[in-house]
Amino acid sequence: MTHITKGANAPVPTVPLRVAVGRSRVPGVPAVEAAALLLDGTGSVRGDADIVFHGQPAHPSGTVRHLGTGEGGGQLAEWLELDLPRIEPAVQRVLIAGSCDDGVFGQVPGLYAQVVAPDGAVVAHYDVTDASSETAFVLGEFYRRAGAWKFRAVGQGYDSGLAGLATDFGVVVAGSAAPPVAQAAPPVAPAAAAPVSGPVPLTGVGKTGVAPAGGAASAVPAPTVVRPAGPVFPAFAPPAAAPPASAPPAAAPPASAPPAAAPPASAPAAVPAASVPAPAADPYGVTVLTDDGAPSWGGEPFEFEQRTFTGDKGRTVVVDLPFPPDSGPVILEAKVQEYHFLHVQIPGREDDVFCTDLPDHYGRALLVPPRKGGPLKLKVRHSGKWELTVLPLSAARRLGAGTIEGSGREVFLHTGPAAEVKVRATDRHSGWFQLNCHAGDTLGELRRPAEELVHAWNGRRVKETVRIPEGPLLLVIDKSRHQWELTVEPEKTRSGSGRRAAGVYEGKGDKKITLVSPRPGRPALVRYEFKDAEHSYGVEARSVDEYGDETEWVNTHAHGLRGTALTFGAGASERAVQVKHSGPWSFELLPEEQAPLITGPVEGRGTTVLRYQGPPTLMTVRRTSRKKEGRLTAHAWNHPYGKSTIIADVSDRHRPALGPVWVDPGGTCFILVGCPESTKWRLEPAAFTDAPLLGARTQGTAYGVVRHTGPDTEVSVVSTGGIQHLYQLDENLFPRRKVTATSGPYHISEGILHVRAIGDWVIEKRS
Question: Is this structure's pTM higher than 0.70?
Answer without folding.
Answer: no
